[in-house]
Design a protein that fits this description.
The structure is a homodimer. The first copy, chain A, is an alpha/beta fold. In chain A, 44% of the residues lie in helices and 14% in strands. The two termini of chain A are 17 Å apart.
Chain lengths: 492, 492
């Protein structure tokens, strides 16, 4: 057990014994470092861990506090069952991805992924840092001026428009434009199947809720995009992580074994430009996956948010396009390709359409009308293709730069993914590097990274990080990556 | 059993036996009326019932179709257990409200409230009808021009603002402005407790999810606002309806008996200007309610969306203001008082704040940023009070007009509520009038009403309707209400 793990365990015990009561302030980083005779870094790391476990929370300018009674109790339960063991888990020799043990774990019972993600996102906001840890695309690439003009014109025009117009399934013109877009891209869909949501987040949540119930087990990729884990956590389901190849995607044989071994209520995958691995699953494998799941009547939630950000010549196929039984619930949004702030997503739920439409109505009633119409107007009045050609070119270039720079600045034993689209790079660091420690050390230097812990319920990726390359490459960026490489070298 | 009930039961049986397969068209209204030798109205009513049960769906210009396999199966189960019995339930002699049997019913197992609500809302949209059935305030009363100006200015200013800025709990300035508003109204709150949501709908959903789990029983008012039933249905919980006095609100003695009789996970109420009854619960009773629930450690979700639309001199108190144990989850929004289309709501979740903030993050990630900032700007730059004084005056007047006109046009035996705020009137029609039949007949004349069935899981309110008086009173409105009165007289 590492020093910071020991310290975290001690603090957890102290909270359990009531030494530090809910709402109470725990010793400052400096105090703790003196009391325990450990470095500031060690304390920072231990506290970050306690925060990610939901035992303490930070308050700006005032330090770390034990969270409120209810939350703490829950967190302590989690910590009891798994936290301390989870953080001392050892990783095996497989590269870039892992071969997880074939057992489902309730997401909330593992290291608290959503809390870690939220605090990571906050750190991006808090510090005006170099955003290697950001999950977002560079917003300056969005045609925001144009879209805002449409929104403004609509708002003027529709003095008294209100919710009624765009009740689920959503604004008819927007639905038509989305269907047209799929058709242009060679993957025709039925407009009547589309349900507009609040970003892909809601589309994924409602799709999962439509096909599975609390306590059910859901198969996901390993590593998996944390939003998938959030959806599972939100519903109190269990996740089972399936080995995923960094180039071919989810291991279909491994998945078959999992299905043979236990009841799987649903499968959640990202066949195109998976976050964090960036692969594009080959068509043959997409078809195999759909057939395997179809044979067992298992619905699959396809997250295709990066569909427009391909580096190849054409938009990749979808699982949906191989689905003959209405078992694929296809989810996407405009947040990665057109505007993140309008939060317009959609689902193509196959045979579960009626339930998803109804759940949308129950969950958030309706998606705001003006953003729906504004996006529809933008899509109708051209420009989207030109915009996307530009964005793809930029990301393709920046992927190359980022890859070259990591090779240049990071120590031997570093491996990385080869993104086929999107804007994130998955980096495996030398075994001895702990990405949570790296995350803290980098943050102290105003650099953010995405710690590997966010992409698994079982901390399989402690020496991995995700790097965002959507933002312009500047001397500052380069200096930051150099610093990051130096930190890694020290820790290796 | 009434004729239309018999017909509905027969059709249900036919679908069950596969006479009409999923996706198949059922006989047209005219055909059915000939085949069964019943009136068009009876068939329309039977089909509306089948639709509200989720067994058939309408498709524009093409008639009624049996819904897809999955949906139909579920619907048939529901129909089997309760639909036919539910529609033949008899109502007792109590006035305006009912004394429900003290037994919980899973919302989805009762007449499908959310489906009926959605089709009612659609009918408002479909027909350019006189909107007595609308749940929305008159949007022309909103200061939309002003708010849109702010939104446009923000969109211009924030070239590259993105999600990060307003992650849960939400935009700090908006949170400050909401807290300031409460303070001005004499019900101070802690800004640190506020979580911004997508309308009150999401606030209520997340609050309920934070305090109860699927299968739990939740106590609600009778009649209850259907959004409460939606939240319960969304989570697969059970609702138990508690007698509610049209002036004093939920019957605290009855609630105490319910609590003594079974495990209640939470209570959901609308103490101010309850929809549909319009009462303002007296302070003494608010305090009693908080104390009763506190004594049993039962969390209560307080829906206070009409807080600003009072007819009295001051903003009424809240359950929150009597809460000393953090058990009140207070939910509200700007959708009734400022802008419906921006979908800005919030929760004050008491001791459950941490869970609600996290659930918000899991459910929809974040509430769109520009609307949050635009509303904050509007609130900061005055005008809200003046706007509200005007709106209150208008609604107070129109409540008087609507009341007088119902007295004038409706037959003897009609009773109605005395709204203390808000913009809906609850009307009890003579026993023999069936509000679903009235709903259909009125729709045929381009008039919408809110059928009583929407406000209960057990069809206790079949001869009740809700009337919206937020829209300007015009000769057309008056003619429509006269027509409605004539329909009621015929049916009585």
């Amino acid at each position: 057990m590492k020093l910071y793990e020991k310290l975290a365990a001690e603090m957890t015990e102290a909270v359990r014994r009531g030494v530090f009561a809910p709402g109470e302030r725990i010793p400052s980083v400096r105090q703790a470092s003196q009391q325990h005779g450990v470095s500031i870094k060690t304390v920072l790391h231990a506290y970050a861990l306690l925060e990610s476990l939901g035992i303490v929370e930070t308050r700006p300018q005032s330090g770390y506090f034990v969270r409120d009674a209810a939350a703490t109790a829950a967190a302590l339960d989690r910590a009891a069952v798994s936290a301390i063991s989870a953080i001392s888990a050892v990783s095996d020799q497989q590269r870039l991805t892992r071969q997880p043990a074939p057992q489902a774990s309730p997401v909330a019972a593992a290291v608290d992924v959503s809390r870690l993600v939220l605090s990571t996102l906050r750190s991006i906001r808090a510090h005006d840092a170099v955003p290697f840890g950001s999950p977002y695309p560079d917003p300056s690439l969005f045609p925001w001026r144009r879209i805002n003009q449409y929104a403004n014109a609509i708002a003027r025009r529709q003095a008294s428009w209100n919710l009624i117009d765009d009740l689920p399934p959503g604004n008819p013109e927007l639905i038509r434009q989305i269907a047209r877009r799929y058709a242009e891209n060679g993957v025709p869909v039925d407009p009547g199947e589309i349900v507009i949501t609040l970003g892909a987040t809601e589309a994924i949540n409602l799709s999962l809720q439509a096909v599975a119930k609390p306590g059910d087990t859901v198969a996901v990729e390993s590593p998996t995009y944390y939003a998938m884990l959030h959806a599972i956590e939100r519903m109190g389901m269990r996740a089972i992580e399936v080995a995923t190849h960094p180039v071919h995607g989810i291991d279909i044989e491994a998945l078959a074994r999992v299905i043979a071994g236990q009841k799987i209520a649903a499968c959640m995958v990202m066949p195109n430009f998976q976050n964090p691995l960036g692969f594009q699953m080959p068509d043959a494998r997409k078809q195999q996956l759909v057939e395997l799941l179809g044979a067992h009547d298992i619905p699959v939630i396809e997250n295709d948010v990066y569909q427009e950000l391909y580096f190849g010549d054409t938009r990749p196929s979808t699982l949906k396009s191989f689905d003959t039984r209405g078992l694929v619930l296809h989810c996407a949004s405009f947040s990665k390709s057109l505007t993140a702030s309008y939060r317009i997503g959609w689902a193509l739920p196959g045979r579960y359409r009626a339930q998803v439409e109804k759940l949308k109505f129950l969950n958030t009633l309706t998606t705001p009308s003006v953003p729906q119409v504004a996006v529809a107007d933008y899509l109708r009045h051209d420009g989207y293709d030109r915009h996307l050609r530009h964005v793809r070119k930029v990301y393709r270039q920046q992927a190359r730069i980022m890859t070259a720079m990591v090779q240049r600045f990071f120590p031997a034993g570093t491996r990385m993914s080869t993104p086929q689209g999107g804007y994130v790079l998955w980096v495996e660091l030398p075994e001895r590097v702990d990405s949570m420690r790296l995350y803290q050390a980098a943050l102290a230097r105003s650099i953010t990274v995405g710690p590997g812990m966010m992409f698994s319920t079982r901390n399989d990726y402690r020496h991995f990080i995700r790097l965002n390359y959507s933002y312009p490459w500047t001397p500052q960026t380069e200096a930051a990556l150099k610093t990051l490489g130096e930190l890694v070298t020290q820790m290796a």
